[in-house]
Amino acid sequence: MGAPKVMSTERSVGVVETRFYEHRKPVSLESGMILEKAVVAYETYGTLSPSRDNAVLLCHALSGDAHAAGYHSGDSSPGWWEDMVGPGKAFDTEKYFVISSNVIGGCKGSTGPSSPNPATGKPYGLSFPVVTVSDMVEVQKLLIEHLGIEKLLCVSGGSMGGMQALQWVVSHPEVVSSCIPIASTYKHSAQQIAFDEVGRQAIMGDPAWRSGDYYGHAGPVRGLAVARMVGHITYMSDRSMEEKFGRILKNSVLGYEFTQEFEVEGYLKYRGDSFVKRFDANSYLYITKAMDYFDLTREKSLMRVLGAARCSRFLVVSFSSDWLYPSYQSKEIVKALKMNGNDVTYCEISSDYGHDAFLLEFVEETRLVRHFLDKVMRDGRRC
Amino acid sequence: MGAPKVMSTERSVGVVETRFYEHRKPVSLESGMILEKAVVAYETYGTLSPSRDNAVLLCHALSGDAHAAGYHSGDSSPGWWEDMVGPGKAFDTEKYFVISSNVIGGCKGSTGPSSPNPATGKPYGLSFPVVTVSDMVEVQKLLIEHLGIEKLLCVSGGSMGGMQALQWVVSHPEVVSSCIPIASTYKHSAQQIAFDEVGRQAIMGDPAWRSGDYYGHAGPVRGLAVARMVGHITYMSDRSMEEKFGRILKNSVLGYEFTQEFEVEGYLKYRGDSFVKRFDANSYLYITKAMDYFDLTREKSLMRVLGAARCSRFLVVSFSSDWLYPSYQSKEIVKALKMNGNDVTYCEISSDYGHDAFLLEFVEETRLVRHFLDKVMRDGRRC
Fold first, then answer.
1. Fewer beta carbons within 10 Å, N or C terminal of chain B?
2. What percent of chain A is modeled with pLDDT above 70?
3. Does the global pTM surpass 0.90?
4. Which residues on B lie below 8 Å from A187 (Cβ)?
């Protein structure tokens, strides 16, 4: 939405390339299953300091990828967080070494259900093991180690990216100096699970899904488009939809037929149809499942879970009109951190953009993030 | 949800039957199309007074029918508004003659896309003309005339029922003494259109839909189930889902597979699968389209549209946690009525049930409706 139509290298990291790290040893997953090997797609921006103390890890949301900033050669659209990552920006690439990695289970270069199963040479499909947010983080840990980094100045991300950031401090508190979860939660609610399940049912109900074994065929394009349409409604707010579309008709009169007559219908259809060209339906199943499984409090209270992360500093951000990941979920994180004695700053940014705000409200986010990272860089861990 | 498991005739209208009125003349529709004839399914409860001044018309929501109260012979579940209609209840059948009619376009006895097309003898399918809320009301008007009723003491309904109630006072202000729109709106918003369009895309994207010509075949059961699942999420609130399901698992452990593992997933699947047994997919398309077309302000401001209804009394009700038909939409109606000089009472009932509250919060609703109808019966029209 905020993307420029032509490439602008001003304050941009410029042309970048996605790289790949192949971990050739088996990876044990939370389910008890084994992933024979794992490829991780990632990008880096900026320079690692000689003391290796300026690394920031960015984690993406459901449909994101490793391409957070800059431009791929020949592309006119930048990465998904271009407004936040670059020289002089919130994640200032003149100060920080920024790493952005694609999650396993996805379809953007990291190992996922569309990757070849080493045992058969054919795409995994549903034989790919179910992965969790914790598994995503463990594979990111392997990448970080591969890059020779022992400590992360910060882990941040919006939505599912925020879940990964929280999981990082819980799984590896000694590694992470600070954490910025944005528009996120410490556990998926019943409503969040429900929306994801509707998307999965739309995909799995499409006969072209063929129990996940559709590679080389058309695939469940109708089902995946419906899943994405549902998603888009939840990413916007009632008000932002009203302001953007209202009841505006594509043509000037009602047609009394079952086509996309309202602009909002056309927008959703377009978004759904575009999505199927760039996203794998099985990855949609796996990644939404990982989010639905996400619950840091499965075994103990949030305060106890965060106990070992007492020395990490937190900046928690939510948006007033985000009803998919409402502010109360962020406030629960903040409350547990406060009770835990953490250094935590919380801000609810006033915005009409709904959940999408984490990608759009970069001016406010920049102010918060820049100041916070300056402090973390200056003061280090809290203890 | 509040329905008793066994038939309870206490304060119930008891055993009732759906009846049918066949209007054998052509009906002109808002689109300019003609419906050759129209059947209306309806039920009545209570007794019409000798002066014919105690008739109350109830209008149903998307998936409702004429069976608002009492029990069909052999059934253990009562009508959809049993808690509100009966002797001594809000719509007191000892005082009022209550009429409940099924909308055209539906599949519960009134003419709709699954009815035989007189021209071919086969089900209409998509050759059924698109109908609007105004068309639904005009056909109800024919029913009322057939019943020998010239004036309605009140028209009421929740959700789409509220839209019909509002349309009644706009189309026939001289006929309607009072109006009780509940959890409703005077125009569908972009978000409301968007949710409906997702449902329609789920149905029309199902190959078994066959462009609407599926009668005699299995039909788009997967697509319709997905549409209903989306609907159910929007009918509940985040909090009511959390309280009812939370993250409770159907089995005690995560299965790491793509089945319904969480109770909320099982509930949605069950609701979706049950719905397809009782509802026609094409009717889902037609009725949601009618709602999306609903906009009383297409040609002039709400205040001007309501101008001729100045003498009708209004009770407008909304629910605090209803995010599908949020209170602000009801408040806009109230504001226009106030500016118009109408006699209007507004109440936002505090409830966690979301949009479903209009079916569940009958204690509060009863208090409001009973008092309001007493006043209308006693004082008549405002002018």
1. N
2. 98
3. yes
4. 247
